[in-house]
Design goal:
Distance between the termini: 22 Å
Order of helices and strands: HHEHHEHEHEHHHHH
Shape: elongated
Helix content: 55-70%
């Protein structure tokens, strides 16, 4: 009987404040969709870092004849055969080095033509202008500075470059976007909480006569507050279901179909469905607990029982 009464009160409360209930549902849905999207964006950035950092190399560019006149590090002339042997041997002695691949001038020229052959400047480049290099694969890409410190400025070496530098800018942009989404999400959650508090306040005020009678007949505080808390939780759950739906639709249409980012951006390793599905329980749990907690705190101030 009590459960039936509580459920009936929930229905009455939702119908009385239908407009505000809809506003709560929409704001919770949008804020939690941003919340889930922020978590997925963080996973995506981490996945891209693991994927690309594992593939980048440290490149040791060797001096050629042209560098001897223009680059101060190559003032002693082009790298000699013995210097190349010594550099390769010293690289392989390092514990952090996984593999070392030598790239000749002809191979460097071929790779350059493959990437930039259609540009106007490519026609003026000749193989003898391309630098020889050692492509070094590290067991831990974070330890690039060990190689840079050991070989930078050494005779025969023009420069030591870490390909991670070209990726760091991209990841900084992605992290900035993630922070911006987080800020918007916090604002949206704050708006949702304020709407929930206001909805509960209006609902409690509109039913002050019923709650007064219940107080007089000895009803417990929890029994009086339960319908209001469950109203907020139910509205939040609807918003959570909407947020979960938005996340699923975004993954489906943006990555798999519609925009087909997975096909058009094949160089990017996108997170899978398992990452999306793993976030849905957290989104749904938050959609219930956050409104319920907001309603409970609001009732302590606006419903004196």
């Amino acid at each position: 009987m009590r459960a039936q009464f509580v459920l009936s009160e929930i229905g009455v409360g939702l119908r009385r404040n239908l407009t505000m209930t809809i506003a709560v549902v929409v704001s919770v849905a949008l804020s939690l969709a941003l919340f889930g999207g922020t978590l997925l964006m963080r996973d995506q950035v981490d996945s891209m870092k693991d994927y690309w950092y594992d593939k980048v190399n440290v490149s040791l560019f060797l001096c050629n004849k042209a560098d001897a006149e223009t680059v101060s590090q190559c003032a002693k002339g082009a790298v000699t055969a013995q210097q190349k042997k010594d550099i390769e041997a010293d690289l392989k002695k390092l514990d952090i080095v996984q593999s070392v691949v030598y790239e000749s001038q002809d191979e460097a020229y071929k790779h350059y033509k493959d990437q930039y052959g259609s540009t106007p400047v490519a026609s003026s480049i000749t193989p003898d202008q391309m630098p020889e290099s050692f492509r070094v694969k590290l067991k831990d890409p974070q330890k690039y500075k060990v190689v840079a410190t050991a070989f930078a400025g050494r005779d025969g070496i023009e420069s030591v470059q870490d390909q991670r530098g070209t990726l760091d800018t991209l990841f900084k942009i992605l992290n900035s976007m993630n922070v911006a989404a987080l800020v918007v999400m916090i604002i949206m959650l704050t708006v949702a909480v304020m709407l929930i508090v206001n909805t509960v306040r209006v609902s409690a005020f509109s039913r002050r006569r019923e709650t007064g009678i219940m107080r007089l007949v000895g009803a417990s505080s929890f029994y009086i507050q339960a319908p209001f808390i469950m109203e907020a939780a139910f509205a939040g759950l609807l918003g959570g279901i909407g947020a979960a739906g938005l996340l699923v639709l975004a993954r489906y249409f943006m990555i798999d179909h519609g925009m087909s980012l997975a096909q058009n951006l094949s160089l990017i390793k996108f997170i899978g469905w398992d990452a999306v599905l793993a976030k849905l329980p957290l989104v749904l749990a938050s959609s219930v607990l956050l409104p319920a907690a907001a309603a409970f705190l609001a009732l302590r101030k606006y419903l004196k029982v």
